[in-house]
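Duplicate of #3305? Posting structure anyway:
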């Protein structure tokens, strides 16, 4: 768990704001239901905040980042297959690439990525690299 000193200013401000929201409950002045009705936050969320505060202190009220943020959850080999298909001389549509990727992933026993994941990989390729692959060195 993060320490309060490891949080940036914005995260500390958010944690403090959440603390001020649950403070009346912690001091026995109000119920969680009353706080939830008064605020735009759900009862269950406020319950969770109280639990995190009791377990980890003020730092427990800060929003947690995902560890796998900005990482694709697909096999690296499958991502290479998608990129290879997208960079073939004959330009394939994202739907055609998806159909081929679906077959490959089933043959290899990998989880089949969604169409939007395949499209995202294709779209994230460097435009100069795509131009070189499809139109050759003169166009590049």
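Output from current build:
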């Amino acid at each position: 768990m993060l320490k309060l000193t490891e949080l940036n200013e914005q995260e500390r401000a958010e944690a403090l704001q959440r603390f001020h929201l649950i403070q009346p409950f912690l001091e026995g002045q109000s119920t969680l239901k009353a706080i939830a009705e008064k605020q735009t936050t759900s009862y269950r969320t406020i319950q969770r905040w109280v639990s995190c505060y009791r377990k980890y202190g003020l730092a427990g009220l800060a929003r947690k980042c995902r560890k796998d943020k900005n990482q694709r959850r697909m096999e690296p080999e499958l991502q290479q297959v998608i990129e290879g298909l997208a960079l073939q001389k004959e330009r394939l549509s994202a739907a055609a690439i998806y159909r081929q990727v679906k077959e490959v992933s089933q043959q290899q026993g990998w989880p089949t990525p969604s169409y939007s994941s395949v499209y995202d990989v294709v779209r994230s390729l460097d435009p100069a690299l795509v131009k070189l692959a499809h139109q050759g060195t003169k166009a590049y």
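Confirmed duplicate; merging threads. The chain has two domains: 4-61, 76-139. The mean pLDDT is 88.
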